Amino acid sequence: MLKGKSYPCSGRVDIYDKGMWKHVGNRDWNEINSEVVCKSLQCGEVVNTTTQYEEDRYPYTSAWANFLKCTGQETQLWQCSHPKDTWAPPYEHVYVTCSENPKLSLIGLDGKDGCAGFVHLSTKESYTLCVEDKDKQKFAEQVCKELSCGEPTTSPNQFVFKDQGKPKQNYKCVGGEDFLWQCIDWSSRGTCREPVSVICSKHLHFRLKGDKANFCSGKLEEFNSPTWRPVNSERYGDISENWTASVICEQLDCGNSGRRQENDTSTTVSLSCSDEVSMTLEGGECHGTIYLHRNNSKKQQVCADHSNDKIGQLVCKEMGCGEFIKTYDDKSGPSRQSNWWALSCKDHAESLWHCGRTQARSCGQQKSAIICSESFKVRLRDGLDECCGRVEVLYKGSWGRVLSDNWARRHSDTVCSHLGCGEGHTEGSDLFIDGDNSNDSPLELTIGQSCGPNDHLLKCLTERGNTQNQKEFIKVICQDQHLFFVNGNSPCSGTVGVELAGKTYALSGDNESWDDSAAHYICGRMQCGQMISFSFANQTGSGWMQLRRQTLNGTSGRPYRLQPASPNTTIVAEVDCTGSVTLALKNKIVNKGDGANEEMSKDRCWGNVEVCHNGKCGGVCRDVWTEKHSEKLCANLGCGRPVVTNQPEQSVALDVAFSSVHCPSTVSDLRGCSYVLNNGSRCAEEKTVYVVCSGSLKAKLIDPRDKCAGTAEVYLAGRWLPLCGSLDKNIQNSVCNYVGCGVARDSTVTTSSSTPEGLTTRCVKDSTSIQNCTDMRLSKPCTAARVNCSNWRRLVVFSGETECGGPVFVKTESSKLFAVSAHPWKSTEVNLLCSNLGCSGQGVGHSKTVSMQNWWNKTYSCHNGAQSIWDCEKEEPQVEKQQLYISCKGQKNVSLANGCYGQVMIDNTENACFSGWTAHMSKMVCYNRGCTDQFSHIQSSSAPGHLRHFSCTGSESKLMECASSQTLCSQGPVSVMCRGAFDFNLTEHCGGQIRVFQHGKWEPACLKKDGGETANHLCKRFNCGQVNNSKINYGKPESTKKDIKAVLSCNGITKLEDCVTESFCGNDDLDEIYCDGFVEKSAPRELPINLIVGVAVGLLLLVIIIPLVLWQRRRITKLLRGLSRTTPTFASDDFEDVEIRLKGETHIRLENQANGREKGLESKSSSEYDDVDEEAEGQRELTAVSSPGVGNADEAPPLPARDVEQDGDRDTDEDYTEGYDDVADPPMEKEPEEQSEEHGAPSQQQESKPLMEEDEDYVQPDDDA
């Protein structure tokens, strides 16, 4: 730059280098160098150059270069050549004066320079500048200062300056410059879209105000900081020379011409410009995108920074749309190029046209859309009136439902207040139906979590996508919602009441408020048609309201309002309207045998709710139906209480005529409630209300042979289903009472067969009817329950031999028998009875005169379709005393698979099911099989399948007298153990552990410590005398007996089979006994240690010698031959002596062993077998006179594995040989297993039973023994 003079093209030559300004030395400086300087600074030609030694006003401590030499082709001085590291004295400078003197100006709308406009710098050419934002404030201060225009300011109405298309240069100061010209970067052209403009404080600002339809017409005002003031005629005269109407209109971007309005007679001046500019919001009333319209043709979009609320505030105010709420991005259409972009609006701006703006901008994909408060419209849909219903808000031109999330009472207050319904009273998601997202209300809106307590509802709302997730929409009831009703015999006739804000009032019938018009209004509000008549009645009480007529306005469409009446009021309004309401439950029953045959059920206590209201009939949407509605409905229909059930509905198709039902708290008759007519809204569940009342419940007991006993079934909504599982006494009594059979016989219920599904239920305490059981739940699968009632009776054939033939009696609950008269029995009745008895469905009957005291006073005559003989029963005061005898085919035989134990078999082809099997059933099977009493029954290990399931009342004597059916049995067959199948043994002869044979295998058992009575029974059974208490170990720990589950305790019982009980052994119980006949076996002696060592050493020597002899056999042979030849007599004698001696010793040792006299060894074989032989002889004598039977006390005990009768008496050699065999494998530590004995094994005359387990010390006797 050239520094130090009064203008930027004259001064000392300085260069900015490495962050500081440096001077240039004057050595060898020439004219060509000066030309390069003027050219590079755009300052024209060289006028003068001086090089001198001068103390400058701006000294520098360093020089940039010296000895510069330019060629004239350079564009910048630093391109000229110069030696490196040249030094120049501090005060040797170069001064250059160029021909140009640049001028700074601000060019405004009129093209004249002044104190506002684009910044122009000009010499022969004119330039505009590009300035970075961070430098603009300092730049503006410099401009205003240089032009003496005061301070820079932001105009209340930013000029839209007209760019003259001048070249742009980049502006950037580094510090130390004196003129703006010195900050221009001449090395490159500017790239900014708009050159910088500046407005200084001495510039005049105007605006036009007053015409909302045209921004370019109105009263002229001038800005006198900080306020605007009207321009009067005097002031206008002062400025009009320079500021004509056309200049002012051009400044305001209202065209290039203007005029003072002709009708302006006031002291203030009004102007009309050539252009007309107006503003619209495209989107809807008081919301949408801001557009400016010039001369009714050119449409210009306004873009605004969304953070600038001032723009929205001005637009909402100018459009008469209330307060500004918020901006949003309107992406509903393509973006448009705009000539306007509202940059900012200061607080004193009163119009969007007064805000700063500029040209040639595009909004891109974002539009400046705003929402004003007057766009807020809300409605309550699908409610009783305008003051209650589902909240729907008009949001950005579309109606939307609002989700209940984050909804607060203040939002309800806003809605109710806006509708003229007072404040909010109740809000929730289940007051009215949700409706749907039809074209009428497609949006789903939600309250944002950032919603403040004072924020407008529109500001809190945001759009939410229509998802498939479960949603709950908010509904509101306002305080001024009036729910009118009547108290009377008809839902549309009686004294009038009203529920307001949750409280109930009587409507005053005073002459001032109650008249013909008011009565018509009440009939209409109750949806009861036209008024027939009105009157009043006397009534006392507190809480009164009266009607007051009001003028209709925009916030309320009601001709009447409610206000409190005098508390001393005693006259209540009364009205009679034409309307009517009827309620019914509609249902259908499907004949499962013929799916096409459907008939309407005559049962009126279950089905879909049908309402007929003023001639319009249909169903009710179930979305907001409550349990209280069901309770009122069932009570109104005389059908008890609603039943809670999960059974699939047996629905009929009804149109949804009513959206919801709303009842005042004091109204108990559902007909007197208010019904919201469905206006096309969709039910969320798309079904009408379905109710099952307890009055539709029925019960019956299913067993063709029994009266007042059988499988309990309940009729629920068109289906008979069994009750499942174990029923408590309350449920049983409910069933028995309902079917007229008294009360339950006991608190336990036998289970019946398994079914795919059934019901579980609960009844009220002390219930007397199944209709008091209002909780019926479907259960899958179901074990059907059987109930026995106190009035039980059964037709039985009582012959003692067969269930299918003999005299017929009625057996009652007290087991008393009544003879059945044969009149008027025919083949129909006989065959039905045979079938009910479980016999073949065919039989014959005859009569027989008998002498009986007790006769059944009923006869039997069947019609077609009878399922049970009890369906044919008729009361008969006097019966013919000839008893009925029948003979049915198909007698079934019951047996056990193994005689007196095993699986229960019917005709050897069917198994009985374990499910529902009882001890009573086992008892009947055992006694009828001659196997004494039952002991237990268990679940068999066989696979489940279709088995016969039995259900008994407890009064039967034979199993086939019980009800039975073949059904799927998930628990498998039952196995019964009768006491007649018990057997007993001990693990040793007359002693040892106790074993009991049950359910096909031997099990350990124990005895109760009862003074030896039970133990003596066992010893006697085995012919072993009395129990030997001295040998019994009472101190065994309980842990050794914890798995024993059979206990013998006779305690006065003489038969051992009856002493067995199923229980665990205690600490004092015995699991082993020893009788007097028990002989304790002594253990064999151990072999002497020296004998063992000697034998071992001998064997070791043999192992060593034998291989040596075989290896040296030839040499030994030769040696022996040689010895034989030399000393034959000696060799022979010696070997003979040795051989004789060895044989003698061996013979003596074997003889001693056989006789038990070997040192340290005593053999008991001979003595023990002699004892056994003698005992066996005695036992054979006892066996010959003993009677056969299971567990016979006189039966011979088993012998050791030695056939005495076949072998006879053994001689001594045989005994020795056996004794020798016993010690053949020393050492002998115990007796062979063949010598252990058990006593009391079952005889062969009994049925086959497995004896002992493999690990038990039991020896089965030989057949001959």
From TrEMBL:
List residues traversing the bilayer: 1091-1111
Q: Which InterPro entries match?
A: SRCR, SRCR-like_dom_sf
Q: Which Pfam families match?
A: SRCR (PF00530)
Keyword field: Disulfide bond, Glycoprotein, Membrane, Repeat, Signal, Transmembrane, Transmembrane helix
Stretch list, region Disordered: 1149-1265
UniProt feature, compositional bias: Acidic residues:
1210-1224, 1253-1265
Q: Name one GO cellular component term.
A: membrane
Annotated localization: Membrane
Positions in coiled-coil regions: none
Bilayer disposition of the protein = Single-pass membrane protein
Entries under SUPFAM superfamilies matching the protein? SRCR-like
Instruction: Please state every residue range assigned to the domain named SRCR.
Output: 1-99, 104-201, 206-257, 279-373, 378-479, 483-585, 587-694, 699-790, 795-889, 888-979, 975-1076
**Basic and acidic residues bias (residue ranges):** 1149-1167
Disulphide bond pairs: C70-C80, C173-C183, C345-C355, C663-C673, C763-C773, C862-C872, C952-C962
Q: Which domain of life, per UniProt?
A: Eukaryota
Task: Identify this protein by name.
Answer: SRCR domain-containing protein
Q: What is the lineage of its organism?
A: Eukaryota, Metazoa, Chordata, Craniata, Vertebrata
